[in-house]
């Protein structure tokens, strides 16, 4: 059978960096071919070459057996290559139908043919059994629905090859099932699907074959049947990682954080929880259940209408993040690029931000103390490369996340709220970040952990609160928590049982 795509001997270098070295990739029509590897392994560079964003230094691309040169993204689309990037590329103020048909809007004499536009979008959505209103404004949809629209837009172009880059990174495992149905439907249609994900379990469930990249080289391509997550990790990182989410047993102390009947209309209602010193408490639930909104209200980013927050028994009036920090609360947000870092600023400047007043005398910042603090945090957390003057946006995702954590650790918080701390980072960085979390718990920090990756929550939490539609639907001890129990509570089934 002729492969839908063959990339042979692909090499690409940037100033001072060899991104790809003689990489081969073959993808067949009607298969899901996963590409896995740590951040910086070359996955994105390889896909940008396929999309025509970059031109390779060496190597060839063949589509259906015919060697070709992809001159740019428009040429890629014309040749039947569809790209769905991790960052959604949609227009929030347009309707679902208008987004799906972007670039191919039916018109006559300069006027949009609304009926044909609507019918074309409905046909695409029906092909996926997607329950999305084509006339709805895109910005009113949930993240998972917008992800479906993004894939539908690519599918509407009748591609022969579709690249899905981290399509479930913003979805809970429950919501990801709808996306998997769409991927399988596209596979039945004979589309060649390239699937990039750090979630190894879904790779094994979905992919027919898996290609592993490491340090810009193809390490191996294997059939997924018989392949284990442990083997993939060993191939990806070149070493054994026996426990991606290590759980360190530490003494649990007195209650540090108390949240009592916290309410904000339309977001969450009468949420009560507590976290003790040295304890890691998971906050689970589907996307949209109110997890992030609760975290932001506790920290002071959003104002609750009623309820109370206490740290070490003292009520906190956290109406601004500054007040939250002063009370001993730190918050690592789910979107590190938008809310967690100043991308163009240096590692040193980012780490110093929450504690500038403590580094100043008479309004003047002590550059020596600023550098010493940054050096201490970078060495402690293993930020790589350990160059404190380097801009944060030049680091890998995992190292950017370490900088966000370092920034808040410099403030020495009593309570650390971690919202999706390992989203979009590779397995090596996940293990590093969880080692850091374990050390913080051992030092007596009270940790509230939010994650859409259920195995992560189950593995590291001492207790778990589950949110359903803005309310706590279950509180589970470590011994009684499993995936089925959490999902029952997250979907509301436990509420009515």
TrEMBL record:
Organism annotation: Leucobacter weissii
Q: Where is the ABC transporter domain?
A: 5-240, 239-494
Any one GO molecular-function label of the UniProt entry? ATP binding
Q: Which Pfam families does the entry mention?
A: ABC_tran
Q: Where does it localize?
A: Cell membrane
How does the protein associate with the membrane?
A: Peripheral membrane protein
Q: Give the signal peptide as a residue range, or say none if absent.
A: none
Question: CDD domains under this entry?
Answer: ABC_Carb_Monos_I (cd03216), ABC_Carb_Monos_II (cd03215)
Name the UniProt record assigns to this protein? Sugar ABC transporter ATP-binding protein
Query: Any keyword Magnesium?
Result: no
Q: Name one GO cellular component term.
A: plasma membrane
What keywords would UniProt list here?
ATP-binding, Cell membrane, Membrane, Nucleotide-binding, Repeat, Translocase, Transport
């Amino acid at each position: 059978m002729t492969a839908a795509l063959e990339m042979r001997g692909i090499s690409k270098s940037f100033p001072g960096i060899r991104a790809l070295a003689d990489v081969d990739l073959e993808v067949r029509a009607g298969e899901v071919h996963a590409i896995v590897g740590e951040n910086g392994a070359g996955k994105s560079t390889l896909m940008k070459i396929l999309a025509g964003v970059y031109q390779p230094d060496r190597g060839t691309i063949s589509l259906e057996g015919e060697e070709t040169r992809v001159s740019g993204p428009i040429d890629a689309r014309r040749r039947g290559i569809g790209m769905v990037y991790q960052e959604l590329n949609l227009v929030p103020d347009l309707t679902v139908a208008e987004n799906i048909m972007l670039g191919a809007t039916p018109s006559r004499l300069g006027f949009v043919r609304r009926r044909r536009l609507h019918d074309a979008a409905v046909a695409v959505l029906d092909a996926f059994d997607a329950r999305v209103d084509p006339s709805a404004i895109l910005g009113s949809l949930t993240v998972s629905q917008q992800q479906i629209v993004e894939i539908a837009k690519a599918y509407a172009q009748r591609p022969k090859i579709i690249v899905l880059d981290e399509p479930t990174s913003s979805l809970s495992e429950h919501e990801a099932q709808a996306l998997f149905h769409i991927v399988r439907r596209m596979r039945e249609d004979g589309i060649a699907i390239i699937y990039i994900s750090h979630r190894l379990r879904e790779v094994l469930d979905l992919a027919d074959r898996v290609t592993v990249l490491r340090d810009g080289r193809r390490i191996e391509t294997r059939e997924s049947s018989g392949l284990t997550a442990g083997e993939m990790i060993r191939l990806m990182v070149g070493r054994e990682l026996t426990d991606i989410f290590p759980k360190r047993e530490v003494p649990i102390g007195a209650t540090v954080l108390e949240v009592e009947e916290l309410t904000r209309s339309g977001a969450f209602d009468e949420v009560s929880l507590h976290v003790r010193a040295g304890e890691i408490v998971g906050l689970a639930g589907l996307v949209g259940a109110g997890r992030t909104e609760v975290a932001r209200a506790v920290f002071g980013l959003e104002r609750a209408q009623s309820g109370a927050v206490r740290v070490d028994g003292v009520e906190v009036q956290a109406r601004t993040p500054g007040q939250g920090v002063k009370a001993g609360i730190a918050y690592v947000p789910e979107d590190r690029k938008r809310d967690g870092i100043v991308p163009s600023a240096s590692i040193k400047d980012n780490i110093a931000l929450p504690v500038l007043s403590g580094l100043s005398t008479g309004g003047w910042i002590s550059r020596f103390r600023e550098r010493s603090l940054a050096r201490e945090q970078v060495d402690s957390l293993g930020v790589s490369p350990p160059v404190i003057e380097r801009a944060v946006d030049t680091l890998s995702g995992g190292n950017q996340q370490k900088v966000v954590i370092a920034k808040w650790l410099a403030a020495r918080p009593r309570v650390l709220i971690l919202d999706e701390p390992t989203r979009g980072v590779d397995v090596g960085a996940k293990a590093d970040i969880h080692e850091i979390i374990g050390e913080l718990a051992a030092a007596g920090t009270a940790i509230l952990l939010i994650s859409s990756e259920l195995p992560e929550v189950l593995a590291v939490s001492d207790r778990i609160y589950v949110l359903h539609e803005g309310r706590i639907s279950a509180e589970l001890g470590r011994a009684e928590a499993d995936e089925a129990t959490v999902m029952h509570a997250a979907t509301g089934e436990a509420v009515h049982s």
